[in-house]
Structures are given as structure tokens and as C-alpha cells.
Specification:
With 306 residues, the chain is α/β, with parallel strands linked by helices. Helix content is 44%, strand content 14%. It has helices spanning 12-31, 53-64, 85-95, 106-115, 130-143, 160-172, 188-201, 211-215, 235-241, 249-252, 275-278, 285-304, and strands at residues 42-47, 68-73, 98-102, 120-122, 151-155, 175-179, 205-208, 220-223, 260-263. The strands form two sheets. Strands 7-6-5-8-9 form a five-stranded parallel sheet. Strands 2-1-3-4 form a four-stranded parallel sheet, with helices on both faces. α2 (53-64) links the parallel β1 and β2 (68-73). The protein is globular, with a radius of gyration of 19 Å. It binds phosphoric acid mono(formamide)ester and norvaline. The site of norvaline (NVA) has 9 residues, from α6. The site of norvaline has 9 residues, from α6.
Length: 306
């Protein structure tokens, strides 16, 4: 593993290695044991978009590993004045041991990896959110140890998070149903790639426009915002088009009795998810947010330790 750009680039053994180390780091963290596996290392974190979880979990995680996190808001760097990604990647590679980037264009993260000399971690692009997807399957596995027995139902806008969930399901042999309104489907190329990957693991990937059909009897209902970062101008139309895709108590009643509800957060309470569900006993969202920390620490250790 040289970079973490997409779950599609990983094989199942690599994902298992991340999960095993994440579980070990989580246990050590909870016992209060020191685990300075990246002492002396620096991670630069480039943000073109806002963040709470990604910033805090990477920054805290790097500190817990004994390393130094460096937050770079793109607009405060020379990137904001037109210095190229090519030159920025080359320069950063002379100072730091790894780069985490949250960008609009997916190509920006690919270029950081192409031109820089250090590992690059994708902290969300318009196309993918792999750290989220990995933390999500780690969280699901904590509740349902055999992912082969699990069906995940993603309900809402087919977006970057959906794409990473599709890739993760395909690699891990977990069934996934995606329900979106017409016009809000995941992109066709991602679906086709995930379906190809799924042939090796036996995962079933299905798409529908009927949320009821998607959640029937499933172990996991997952949703995300209807308006992702960069789509703010479309918010009003999206609220209208996605209104029938809210995760509420009635929808949850159609899932398996032991079902959990997941959301990458930030949530828009009253839109894609109700207060009742977010604050209810079946919500796994806070564990899910915590697991970003442990899974990303594992990723950093695997990519950056000597
Ligand atoms: N889920 C997630 O990536 O949250 P942030 O946008 O707060 O980083
Ligand atoms: N799909 C959302 C995820 C936020 C973590 C977005 O891109 O804004």
C-alpha cells in the first residue's frame, strides 16, 4: 500500500490488515497505553473544503501516534494564489512524511500522489471518501462480525460516500442496496467497477428508486446529506427531489429488528434523517465517528512507519 486514494485500489487482505491494526490501536487507546508508532513523522493536511471529523481525527490521531500534524487550509497557502499541485506536491515531499488532502477535484489527490514523493491519503473528494467507507465497514463489523451476512442499504443521494461504500461492499463481500431518486444515482462507472470487484467476493450490488424495497430486512440503513459540499446552489431542488428518502422511524421499522443506522455526519436533522432516529437506540453514528480516528491511525501507520 503506497497511498490511500480509493478502496477499489485495495485488496481484501489489505483492508483486513487496516481493520486488525485499527482494533489493536483502539484497544490500546482505550486502555490509555502509549503507542507512538510515528514519532518524528509529520503529516501535512490540505483542506479545500471545511471539515470537523476529518481534521480533528487526523490531527488528534497523529498526535497520539507521536507525530506532528500540520493543517494547511488551501486558501492560506500559495495554492490559493495559483501555485500548481505539481510544484506543491514536490515541495511538500521535501518537508513532510505524508499528505492528507480534502479537495474538490479527485484529480488533485491523484496529482499529489503522482508528483509528490510521500504517501497521500484521500480525505474526501467530489468522487470518493475512502477513509469514511473503511471506518464504516470497521464499525459494521464490530456489530456484525461476519460481513458476508450483512446487507447495507444506502438511502438518499448517490454521492462520494455512496461510491466508497459501494467499493467497500464489493471488496469485503457485503451485500449493498442503493436507493436514490432518478437522476441521483451513483455514477455509472463506479457501479460497473464495484460490480466487477463483487464477482470475486460474491457481494450483491443492487440499485433501486424505491427506498422501501431497499431497506426491507436489512442490518444497516445508511444515509448522508442531500447536498454535498460544493452543491449548495442546488439545495432547494434537492430537498424537493429527495423528500421521500428520509430515514425516519417508519423506515427503520422495515429493517431487521437488530438493524443499526449510520450517517457519516454532518447530519441535517429533519432532512435526510430525523431527530428520533439520530438520537434513538439504533443509531451507530457516534461509534462510527469515533472509528474514523482508529481506522485512520492504522492507515497512517501502515503508510508512514519506517
Ligand atoms: N464525515 C466527515 O468526513 O466529516 P467532516 O466533513 O466533518 O470531516
Ligand atoms: N457527501 C458529503 C460528505 C461530508 C463528509 C459531502 O461531500 O459534503
Amino acid at each position: 500500500m503506497q497511498h490511500l486514494i480509493s478502496i477499489h485500489d485495495l485488496d481484501q487482505d489489505q483492508i483486513r490488515e487496516i481493520f486488525d491494526l485499527a482494533a489493536d490501536l483502539k484497544a490500546r487507546q482505550h486502555r490509555g497505553e502509549e503507542h507512538r508508532l510515528l514519532a518524528g513523522k509529520t503529516l501535512a493536511m490540505i483542506f479545500e473544503k471545511p471539515s470537523t471529523r476529518t481534521r480533528v481525527s487526523f490531527e488528534t490521531g497523529m498526535a497520539q501516534l507521536g507525530g506532528h500534524p500540520l493543517v494547511l487550509n488551501a486558501g492560506d497557502t500559495q495554492l490559493g494564489r495559483g501555485e500548481t499541485i505539481h510544484d506543491t506536491a514536490k515541495v511538500l515531499g521535501r518537508y513532510v512524511d505524508g499528505i492528507m488532502a480534502r479537495t474538490f477535484a479527485h484529480e488533485t489527490v491523484l496529482d499529489l500522489a503522482k508528483y509528490g514523493s510521500v504517501p497521500v491519503i484521500n480525505g474526501l473528494t467530489d468522487l470518493l471518501h475512502p477513509c469514511q467507507g473503511l471506518a464504516d465497514y470497521f464499525t459494521i463489523q464490530e456489530r456484525f462480525p461476519d460481513l458476508g451476512d450483512v446487507t447495507v442499504s444506502y438511502v438518499g443521494d448517490g454521492n462520494n460516500v455512496t461510491h466508497s461504500l459501494l467499493y467497500g461492499a464489493a471488496k469485503l463481500g457485503c451485500d449493498i442496496r442503493v436507493a436514490t431518486p432518478p437522476g441521483y444515482e451513483p455514477i455509472a462507472d463506479v457501479i460497473a467497477t464495484a460490480k466487477r470487484d463483487a464477482e470475486a467476493t460474491g457481494a450483491t450490488i443492487s440499485l433501486t428508486h424505491d427506498p422501501k424495497e431497499a431497506v426491507d430486512g436489512v442490518q444497516v440503513i445508511y444515509t448522508d446529506t442531500w447536498t454535498s459540499m460544493g452543491q449548495e446552489d442546488e439545495a432547494k431542488q434537492r430537498r424537493k427531489d429527495l423528500a421521500g428518502f428520509q430515514v425516519n422511524q417508519a423506515m427503520l421499522g422495515a429493517a431487521a429488528p437488530e438493524a443499526i443506522v449510520m450517517h457519516c455526519l454532518p447530519a441535517h436533522r429533519g432532512e435526510e434523517i430525523t431527530d428520533e432516529v439520530m438520537d434513538g437506540p439504533q443509531a451507530a453514528v457516534w461509534d462510527e465517528a469515533e472509528n474514523r480516528l482508529h481506522v485512520q491511525k492504522a492507515i497512517m501507520v501502515l503508510l508512514m512507519r519506517d
